[in-house]
Amino acid sequence: MIHNFNAGPSILPKEVFEKASEAVLNFENSGLSILEIGHRTTRFQAVVEEATNLVKELLQLNNEQEVLFLHGGASTQFYQIPLNLLNGTDTAAYTETGTWSVKAIKEAKIFGNVIIAGSSKESNYTSIPKKINLTEKTNYLHITTNETIAGTQWKNIPYDCGVPLIADMSSDIFSRVLDFSKFDLIYAGAQKNMGAAGVNLVVINKNILGKVKRTIPTILDYRNQIAEKSMMNTPPVFAIYVVLLTLRWLKKQGGVATIEKINNTKAELLYKTLDSLPIFTGVAAKEDRSTMNAVFTISDPILENEFLKICNEENIVGIKGHRSVGGFRASMYNALPLESVQFLSELMCQFAEKA
Ligand SMILES: *Cc1c(COP(=O)(O)O)cnc(C)c1O
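That is the input. Now the predicted structure with pyridoxal-5'-phosphate docked in place:
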């Protein structure tokens, strides 16, 4: 058995891989591959419709929230959001919590003014700001609910900040229960917790649109995508199908509340192990630790290499830390079985004993 702790693209349920590969050969007994059918066929329309309805059901969205499946990954949303929501003279508020929010801020500055409503830069992004500072009038507040590289996660969402709330949920979407109906825009690249790379989920409250003066390129205007149900051009057909399969699997598990319990069990086990072994050091502040990405180090570089080598030998994959942080990162997305976390924890204990 391979224990896949990859940060993204990452592990998906085995049955998703099986059904996806069946569909490549013969999609729903049509005799055709999913790769060769038209995106406007009844069969594929049914895929988009079911995926949309599952997103609405699993996230318990309200009637004003539209579900889109778009190209370009989460990084495209970094600019598509301010392009649609921020006039050149307007201001948007961003929280600065790590690599991903910094990238979002950089793009927003192209389109308008940005104020930093909370930052953990001084702690080298090992924590989440506890206070939001919204002194100026702003068009929206942007947060990154889970910083995949720093291994931090917002536990208290600033729901009632008084301005539209926008969240990059690329690495913790569908992992825990939040009041998703209170977000005006949610976006997530599929490849962490929701499917294959190539598609982006965008949930948007349609009432926040239509307020900027600039001309928006047709395909980047959310209003057009809503009107055309994400079908302005050929959507990433196969990636959307993999999202559907993953959401069906999630529903069968019992939905977001059930998977959250399992995710908490996995994260508690890993962090408990980490805290009990002095040789390992957790990087994120304890109260802000991500249930999805656990980041840790070993102070001695020789031992660090040795542990990495042992992980490789034991079929633990994807545990090497991000190049900007070093050390290790264990990503524990929805599809990672508890068994894999137990295996890693035991290996850490054995390693600490011998070191
Ligand atoms: C991976 C990731 C992104 C970038 O996603 P792409 O689909 O590669 O553009 C953005 N934000 C967060 C939080 C991520 O984890």
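The chain has two domains: 3-9+255-354, 14-253.
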